[in-house]
Amino acid sequence: MSLHHKIWRIAGPLILSNLSVPLLGLVDTAILGHLDSPTYLAAVAVGSSILAFFYWGFGFLRMGTTGASAQAWGAEDEDQQAQVLLQSTALALGLGLSVMLIGPWLAPLAVSAMQTPDSAREFAASYLDIRLLSAPAVLLTYVAVGWLIGQQRARWALVVMVATNALNIVLDYLLILGAGLNSDGAAWASVISEYSGLGIALWAVGPALRGIARQRLAGMLVSANYRAILQTNSALFIRTAALLFAFAFFTAQSATYGTTVLAANTILLNLLLFTSHGLDGFAHAAEALVGESAGRKHQQEFTAVCRACGQWSLAMGVLLSIGLLLGQDPIINLMTDLPAVATSAHEHFFWLAALPLISVASYLLDGIFIGTLQTRWMQHTMLLCVAAVYLPAWHLGQGLGSHGLWLAFLLFNLARGLSLGLVFARLQHRRDWW
Questions:
Q1: Which of 285, 390, 401, 414 has the most CB atoms within 10 Å of its CB?
Q2: What letter does residue 432 receive in the DSSP assignment?
Q3: Which helix or strand (DSSP H or E) is residue 428 part of?
């Protein structure tokens, strides 16, 4: 099998599954954007940004599991593959239950901290309370999908994600419009579909779980066995928290310009997620194939994977940027029929169109560093980009209004790729990946 064939065998299903995630956000936005008030859309925008810290903030469970699973796969170590799945599952369950119990106490504070418009505060708080019920399902699904990607079983990841999001879209229509539940309907649709997705994910990893011997289960109680996975995941957690701070800060600052700008920027951010998940398909392929090479300690194969994934990622970035430019009018018209929101979205659309091409390197390099479990570099560079690029650029650009906010966000994504690129060149020169 050629390398490009292997990349597409993994990336193809993952691109489709990843695109179903922002597609869900686009459907949420489109349905809520056609209600008689932008308040519900603003409430979901704020609630979703806060949930990024509760749910997406634990995305390290997926990433860390993928890298460790891929390396165990490359080394053909079945015991290690089982151990990765067990330990990550135990960690996800504990964290999910903690979030479900503690989250409702923190939600009101988070809504206030996001400078939520008064008209949307009650709806945002209610949305959060409902969504937090599915915390265990979300985190356990992260682990199952991450393990499947590392085992190069990307089609199962596609089934899990597409089935979950397709059900969510149907329930959105039924609960938001049919039952008239507005933003609460969007929340309940997500909870129901997330537990359904967990059921499918557990079915997919079922054979591996059933084949685990009792002595491996006993090993879950030995704290020393968790040292490596906790080191990897702690760095990914800090990196992810910093990234999500950048998105939440963007939403919070958008709110200072009023409900109209907040709603417009919500539309554009959902479109950005649509393009970023397309790029992530090749990043996920890099995670699996780079991890396999690292497990074998095969430098030549590693270099070839990085080069091939880079070529496909660049092609995808160009295609996405061109597609956004050509489709600007119909896309915005699809997302909202509120004239003021549509006008604001048009004014800022060129920033969105530039981002896929600007962000190509950061997505690809994330995948490479996850596959090699060099996660500390991801942590260091992300913190540097937030503190030394994003926030200073926003501060200096305040006189430009919301365009200054978009400029800071673009420079932040550019810096992510450049900083990781410098580290990649250093490690590649010194052959210091494993």
A1: 285
A2: -
A3: helix 402-430
Alpha helical stretches, state H, 117-226: 118-131, 135-150, 154-172, 182-210, 214-219
Q: Which residue has the tokens 């239950």?
A: 97
| Buried/exposed 287-299: b ≥16 CB within 10 Å, e otherwise | bbbbbbbbbbeee
Residue by residue, DSSP assigns 291-305 as HHHHHHT-HHHHHHH
Phi/psi of residue 51, nearest 5 degrees: -65, -25
Q: Which pLDDT score is estimated for 173?
A: 84
**Residue type for position 312:** W
Using DSSP's 3-state secondary structure scheme, residue 37 falls into coil
Tell me the C-alpha distance between 345 and 409, whole Å.
16
Residue 229 and residue 280: Cα distance in Å, rounded?
23
Cβ(281)–Cβ(11) under 8 Å? Answer: yes
CB 332 within 8 Å of CB 353: no
**Which residue type, as a one-letter code, is found at position 82?**
A
Interval 294-350: pLDDT, tens: 988 889 999 999 999 999 999 999 999 999 999 999 989 888 888 899 999 999 999
Please answer whether residues 172 and 185 qualify as being in contact, where contact means their C-beta atoms are separated by less than 8 angstroms.
Answer: yes
Rounded distance between C-alpha atoms, residue 148 and residue 62, angstroms: 10
Q: How far is CA 272 from CA 68, 336, 430, in A?
A: 29, 16, 36
